[in-house]
Specification:
The chain has six domains: 112 residues, no CATH class; 149 residues, Glucose Oxidase, domain 1, CATH 3.50.30; 221 residues, 3-Layer(aba) Sandwich (Glutaredoxin), CATH 3.40.30; 50 residues, no CATH class; 41 residues, no CATH class; 60 residues, no CATH class. Strand 16 and strand 17 form a beta hairpin. The chain has 17 helices and 29 strands. It has a seven-stranded mixed barrel with strand order 2-3-8-6-5-4-9. Strands 11-10-14-15 form a four-stranded mixed beta sheet, sandwiched between helices. Strands 20-21-22 form a three-stranded antiparallel beta sheet, with no helix packed on it. With 714 residues, it is an alpha+beta fold. Helix 1 packs antiparallel against helix 4 and helix 3 runs antiparallel to helix 4. The N terminus and C terminus are likely disordered. It binds 2-acetamido-2-deoxy-beta-D-glucopyranose (NAG) (3 copies). One 2-acetamido-2-deoxy-beta-D-glucopyranose binds next to loops. GO terms for molecular function: calcium ion binding. InterPro entries: cEGF (IPR026823), EGF_Ca-bd_CS (IPR018097), PA_dom_sf (IPR046450), PA_domain (IPR003137), VSR_TRX (IPR056858).
């Protein structure tokens, strides 16, 4: 059994897939339960490389686009059974999305299929809502229809309208404008129009988009053959550009009902229909349990983007619901296992952990480059463990913050998809790192990981849920949600899961306020000293974004660092740069002329952030190197005197002033000495002359006279 499954996988890996016809006429194979309508021209091109595992990836994204019915599922739930189920997913990648096998692998698959039918593989549940025809009399009654996996089904509500079958463009593969057809109500108060569209030729989503643009309120796709209802899915690689914008509900109805409706419409009867989603979800009590089956891989194209967009937009709502006890949320992750005989193969080694027990497809489908499947498994495991730790500490809603932050801080694109990066995120959310490390365990060990084992078991359907085979999948009250992954559409569905009249206020109005920055600063960067934080509370939950404070812009990742930048940055905490004051002199490494960074000013060296140190110009012999010079270092400068004569160079203003005053004083002194000596000389000359004519009786009096005279003179 195991060998067969492996055989198929390898056959797939080595088989080029030819483009083929995708009509729905081939019914010799088992029934398709989810389908994507594809125009023949848009079928997958032949794969250029034999090891191209596009299909393998598809088995993750759109796994089991076909699955096989079985009368009674076996009761054993050990690894064997889970493995068989999983191999059915692998196997499904062999089929094209119309559920049919191609070319050379067909025979091998048939053999395996029989083995799997015997083992009772996956059970895919088609989620339904009810449709009531209220007129005309002849076909009045209640019918079932299958909810499409796009658009917005009105969970918990009803929609009443007239049915119209267009005269042309009946498959709605082209714009109705080209045919001059509109379904808009011409008069106010007119009932909305439901458009009847035939299956085939193009994607279901294209049909819905064209009908919506023409003004239809809902789309009823009529199956083109008599068969049990299937789930209409959206394409995973192409034609997704308008997926996000489909807001009307789409349902698939049986060929029989479709034919009856068409006949009545063609007869000119008014066909009135009520679409009812009130019983599509069980709503037994006042708490809704829901699960999100997801994946940490951020590079799988539109499906991964859609998944992340949903986490980002729904996070705030999910956290409010969880905190108030209205919901119990659990995230889940799908893994595969590698058949034992292949545990040592290159493929299994790069895609699996714990010796082939838990695997995920390679993100780029190339084993030789980028991240491997096993990196994805390890990150998925981190996310489950974060949820477990958060749940144990009574704050299960932290999972939303973790997944959101991880996708921003550790993306594959930037080569940050590593366990180390995960640890940074865990720390910033204040979770117990050791506990999570213990839960992750050793990915190289040859043993079970209880957490991933439980996930594999949970993957298998129970009660009404069915196997989870489409990623991402939302399960609400144990039923798979169908419709687009969009905040308001999902909230509507969650709200439909409450017992009537017990819905929380958020179901009635969406503007509920909390401030998530109050606790632990939301795990964002902050500078307490300056009262600056990167945490911003928005209605979608908190975001970590560097702020603008007093006109100064901060830049950084918002989680671990933010730095002031641009004009005025030195006003705030000196732009994060070094600054010191000594003897009334302040020196800073921040300059407003430079938009970022710190630089020590001349005369200092260092990183400019933590420190700038004075350069000892004398010791380093940078300046003042003349013979007989004496050099003295000062803070930020130096003083130099050469051979007794004072010389200046690169010295401060104060020193120049000292020299200036010195020179002035010396000049004044010299002048005074000169004057004094001149006068004493004249004195002695005069005395000598006078002594020749008169005796010197009173020398002192004469002296006094001269001093007084000299005083007048000065
Ligand atoms: C979908 O809607 C968004 C905004 O509502 C718009 O920007 C975008 O162009 C739309 N896409 C298409 C394909 O119409
Ligand atoms: C989370 O915690 C609640 C109560 O503490 C518990 O009932 C629930 O089973 C836990 N969920 C998981 C997945 O461990
Ligand atoms: C910090 O700033 C916020 C607003 O930016 C203000 O409301 C708060 O009072 C400030 N706290 C302190 C301690 O200055």
């Amino acid at each position: 059994m195991k060998r067969l499954a492996v055989g198929v996988w390898l056959a797939f890996a080595w088989t080029e897939q030819p483009a083929g016809d995708c009509g729905d006429s081939d019914s010799s194979h088992a029934r398709t339960h989810a389908a994507v309508e594809i125009a023949p021209a848009r079928l997958l091109p032949p794969h250029p490389h034999p090891l191209d595992l596009a299909g393998f990836r598809r088995s993750l994204d759109l796994a089991a686009s076909s699955s096989w019915e079985s009368p009674s599922p076996p009761q054993d739930s050990n690894r064997e059974a889970a493995g068989r189920r999983r191999s059915s997913l692998w196997w499904s990648s062999l089929t094209n999305r119309c559920g049919r096998m191609r070319g050379p692998v067909r025979w091998a698959v048939v053999v395996v299929v029989m083995a799997m039918v015997e083992a009772a593989a996956g059970r895919f549940v088609v989620e339904k809502n009810s449709l009531r025809v209220t007129s005309p009399e002849g076909i009045k009654g209640k019918y079932e229809c299958a909810i499409g996996n796009f658009g917005v089904p009105q969970y918990g509500g009803t929609l009443h309208g007239w049915v119209e079958y267009p005269k042309s463009n009946q498959k709605a593969c082209k714009s109705f404008e080209d045919f001059d057809i509109s379904f808009k109500s011409t008069r106010s108060g007119g009932r909305p129009k439901f458009v009847l569209i035939d299956r085939g030729q193009c994607y279901f989503t294209t049909k819905a988009w064209n009908a919506q643009n023409a003004g239809a309120a809902a789309v009823l796709v009529v199956d083109d053959k008599s068969e049990p209802l299937i789930t209409m899915d959206n394409p995973d690689d192409a034609g997704t550009e308008h997926l996000e914008n489909i807001t009307i509900p789409s349902v698939l109805i049986t060929k029989k009902l479709g034919d009856d409706l068409k006949k009545s419409a063609e007869n000119g009867d008014m066909v009135s229909v009520l679409l009812d989603w009130r019983e599509s979800l069980p709503h037994p009590d006042e708490r809704v349990e829901y699960e999100f089956w997801t994946n940490s891989n951020d590079e799988c194209g539109p499906k991964c983007d859609m998944q992340m967009d949903f986490v980002k937009s729904f996070r705030g709502t999910a956290q409010i619901l969880e905190k108030k006890g209205y919901t119990q949320f659990t995230p889940h992750y799908i893994t595969w296992y590698c058949p034992e005989a292949f545990v040592v193969s290159k493929q299994c080694k790069s895609q699996c952990i714990n010796h082939g027990r838990y695997c995920a497809p390679d993100p780029e489908q190339d084993f030789s480059q980028g991240y491997d499947g096993k990196d994805v498994v390890v990150q998925n495991l981190h996310q489950i463990c974060v949820f477990k730790a958060a749940n144990e500490s009574g704050k299960p809603w932290l999972w939303w913050d973790y997944v959101h932050d991880f996708s921003i801080r550790c993306p594959m694109k930037e080569k940050k998809y590593t366990p180390e990066c995960a640890v940074h995120v865990i720390k910033s959310l204040g979770l117990d790192v050791e506990k999570i490390k213990k839960c992750v365990g050793d990915p190289e060990a040859d043993e079970e990981n209880p957490v991933l084992k439980a996930e594999q078991d949970a993957q298998i359907g129970h009660d009404k849920r069915g196997d989870v085979t489409i990623l991402p999948t939302l399960v609400i009250n144990n039923r798979q949600y169908r419709g687009k992954l969009d905040k308001s559409a999902v909230l509507k569905a969650v709200c439909a899961g409450f017992e009537e009249t017990t819905e929380p206020a958020i179901c009635l109005s969406e503007d509920v306020q909390t401030n998530e920055c109050l606790e632990n600063n939301g795990g964002c960067w902050q500078d307490r000293d300056n009262n600056v934080t990167a945490c911003k509370d928005t209605f979608r939950g908190r975001v970590c974004e560097c702020p603008v404070v007093k006109g100064v812009k901060f830049v950084g990742d918002g989680y671990t660092n933010c730095e002031a930048s641009g004009i005025g940055r030195c006003e705030i905490k000196n732009g994060g740069c070094w600054k010191e004051t000594r003897n009334g002199k302040t020196i800073s490494a921040c300059s407003n002329e430079v938009s970022e960074g710190c630089k020590c000013p001349p005369g200092f060296k260092g990183d400019g952030i933590k420190s700038c140190e004075d350069i000892d110009e004398c010791k380093e012999k940078l300046y003042c190197q003349c013979k007989g010079c004496s050099c003295e270092n000062t803070w930020g400068s130096y003083e130099c005197s050469c051979g007794g004569k004072e010389a200046t160079s690169a010295v401060g203003w104060s020193f120049l002033w000292v020299i200036f005053f010195g020179l002035v004083l010396a000049g004044v002194g010299a002048y005074a000495v000169y004057k004094y000596r001149l006068r004493s000389y004249m004195d002695s000359e005069i005395r000598a002359i006078m002594a020749q004519y008169m005796p010197l009786d009173n020398q002192e009096a004469a002296n006094q006279h001269h001093v007084a005279h000299a005083g007048d003179d000065i």
